[in-house]
User: Fold D-erythrulose kinase from Rothia aerolata.
Amino acid sequence: MTKIFNDPAEFSDDQLEGFLDLYSDRLVGVPGGVISLPPKEPQVAVIVGGGSGHYPAFAGLVGPGFAAGAVVGNIFTSPSAAHVYSVAKAADQGKGVILTFGNYQGDIINFGIAAKMLNNEGIDTRIVVVKDDIASAPEFEKRRGIAGDFTVFKAMGAAAAAGKSIDEVERIGNLANERTRTLGVAFSGCTMPGADVPLFTVAEGQMGVGLGIHGEPGIRDEKRTSAEELGTMLTKAVLADVPENPGSRIGVIVNGLGTTKYEELFLLYRTIAPKLREAGYEIVDPEVGELVTSLDMGGVSLTVLWLDDELEEAWTAPAYACAYRKDPKPLDSIEKTYTAKVATISEDDQVEASAAATALATQVRKAAADIAELMREKEQYLGEIDAFAGDGDHGRGMVRGTEAAQEAIDNAPETAGPSQLLKLGGRAWAMMAGGTSGVLWGASLETAANTLDDAAESFAPEKAAEAVAAFADSMVTLGGAQIGDKTLLDSLLPFTEALGNSNSNLPTAWQEAAQIAVQKAEDTAVLSPKKGRARPLAEKSVGHPDPGATSMGMILTQLGTYFS
Amino acid sequence: MTKIFNDPAEFSDDQLEGFLDLYSDRLVGVPGGVISLPPKEPQVAVIVGGGSGHYPAFAGLVGPGFAAGAVVGNIFTSPSAAHVYSVAKAADQGKGVILTFGNYQGDIINFGIAAKMLNNEGIDTRIVVVKDDIASAPEFEKRRGIAGDFTVFKAMGAAAAAGKSIDEVERIGNLANERTRTLGVAFSGCTMPGADVPLFTVAEGQMGVGLGIHGEPGIRDEKRTSAEELGTMLTKAVLADVPENPGSRIGVIVNGLGTTKYEELFLLYRTIAPKLREAGYEIVDPEVGELVTSLDMGGVSLTVLWLDDELEEAWTAPAYACAYRKDPKPLDSIEKTYTAKVATISEDDQVEASAAATALATQVRKAAADIAELMREKEQYLGEIDAFAGDGDHGRGMVRGTEAAQEAIDNAPETAGPSQLLKLGGRAWAMMAGGTSGVLWGASLETAANTLDDAAESFAPEKAAEAVAAFADSMVTLGGAQIGDKTLLDSLLPFTEALGNSNSNLPTAWQEAAQIAVQKAEDTAVLSPKKGRARPLAEKSVGHPDPGATSMGMILTQLGTYFS
Assistant:
């Protein structure tokens, strides 16, 4: 929803003023829009336009190698004929003018009248109307222009910058238009500045297939699918509408409408690119990002431009518009033939394990397997209690970490002692788990491992308390938290203290301490919210135990079973 | 809300895969993140990172002149120490490594451990922690890193690309950090992939001042203000936290968090830039856009980097990262000293008006004034009925158009006849109103004007019907709509027909026809929705008259008063 404005009625003019201030080193404002400072060599002036609300289209596409000017209407409203005339007249360099825009009635009329006015004055003016949206009509001539604006404008901008004649630029623009297809889906409608309801809504779990970019909803609603299914659907539909003599090379755009963000677009491209290649196409200079938007609309579209030699030359040509900059020259400064070094953490020299150490190592291997299994069992529960104050990934993080540790330990040489095994397990845990708790567990296991000597002839029970103390110290030092902060320390530190102070034999002492740890973990439910968390969520955590303290209690309890 | 994903738990890895495919000509994936293909001349490797969900930060900032690599954690989750180590090791070019990231506990631990591992192996590794968020703590050392990541990373990337030593790059990074301040506001929280509630919410009409970029809400909620007030608040707050020896030149970033779109950011910049200049600063290479985001969070931040000579050199240096490309060279191809031609539409030669024409002209002048007044009275009502099926701007458009027509007519020479006046009025209407109805009214008035001869000795009553018929024909031809489409034709065409067929004298015929027009306009309330409109809104239009047909009826009725 649009939140930043003064008088909503002046939104379009106000934002244009800021835009012109921002790019005053390269653009000039004229009545009705914006033009680029003219090139030193006169060119055909490609004038793009339509209503505003589609940035980077249209004003963001003005600059060397792209549009010579943009007519800026009010939001989703065609600019007036006089404003088209004004921008074109200011941008004309004596080589003729091309007015290009999407296929909408208001634009057809206003740009059409302006073209008449310009031609009457002897300025050779042509019109290229973009019609890429395959969902908007079966007949090509009736189709709307959406993200395909970009491929058509880019083709003409490059042709003009190459010094081609107006006949050539017009021909290349129409060629790009005939070879461009787009299909999009809408997840949510956009809201006009000052309005409190969106222009349309999409039911939760649904998506509108065949979106427009002016608040037109999709032509039909479908159940929202996985990225994989969405990418498949879009790819199939666009490739089904293949132009004549398609060839095997294509330009591709995955375009975000406004609130569908970059990571989502990359994720979708991951599905689309292989499918296009499977279909026998080579992808040339793909673009994934926000190129033709619709205010804060949620949605995405796939555009394919079937290339031939001259379209590929235009598609790959440099451009330096405000919102679109391409000039691969800087990439010449990098080594194109290079294989990245894959880093492996150097292993310490392994100590030959004593008989006692080998016996203990067997226990460590069993524990590693059992604990990974335990975390798999508890993953869902740990995720649920984490979701109250966090992002709900604690269970998964613990599974990732303990499984990585188990695998590293399984793969260790049979002769490895407990210290070596715990080191390898700890490193693997830190490597795979990420986040804060993963690295704390991993690094602290390594610290604990360092208290053990694989060459020792025997392991006194006190060694256990010593290793645990080292583990706990590492947790405190690295984590920087304190008891009562609702972290794993709330169960670990009472455990360590109880184990250290106990006079019972190790199995009993460990089990008693583990019971305390479990109890203290449950007690964290009454502690106040974690610091630094998003408020509403943190408040929800009161009444629920801390996931880190809880998993710690579970693991300590499990470990107690190996001493009997 | 994030809508495109497969397994939410794999979101970060999946999106990175797509990203690497997209930029495979310049980037290489390594365990834990991404590195640039190395430069031909070895440089200090600046490694940026943290959790994902902030694109273009962090992976989008990898490339010549910027970062050598990015460590990519899960969403809002620190990457593991091993992954930091892996990326740094792969990116190291023998000139040392700088690990740089925002001031968050998980990153401090993981990057810190990795730095130890790298230094142990003899790779000179330094750490630069970004602390720009003035809202997060009064003490600089405790502050979070948010959009200021960008200025600090950019400074070091430029220094490294310039071949500076690791000591120099580290020093410049710390200098940029000490001279960067950011304050942001949140309008809405972001939603994690797969989650159905945002990490936090902001009450309608409120904004959270002092946002974080990991779902941390603002430190205090305030009433949402106009863009003007928001810009003033942000500017004052950031300038109040001025560093030592500020100087008079600053780099500026207006950063969108994800769903606060470009037009809004430009609009805000329009308020901020003048205030920074009033404070005596010169703005150098401002950046307005999405540089450090937080998934689909709504919000914006202002960052100021106080420049000195070496920081300005770094801030303005070229860079060619995936998501940030800057190399002003192409601008050398444009004429820097240029004043845009402001186009004026050429006037036809004026015909000396006859006595009869002059008399009629007086009526036209009066009508122009009365109709503009009438539209001002009806603006709100016309906007209300337009809002049911459209964007609610019909009233405003009619006021703009009729006022422009009146002004042009008022400024016409006293000797101008009715044809000349209607031509001038029509052109001004089309010029100022924009949209579809504005240009239809303007162009059709001109067509009507052409049926009148200012030199004529007398004007027969039939002339009125003739002019109206020409006006209606133009509306039909240009507009391409049909009767029953719920447009102004639904009142205009019945009027024209009635006027043409009437045997009464003109005043009576006109008034009778106008009554029919008004009735037919009311009848449009029962017509089915306009085609091509957003569905939920279009359905709402049933039961409400069409605004275009309604204003047409009002104006025709008004015109009837000049014939008695």
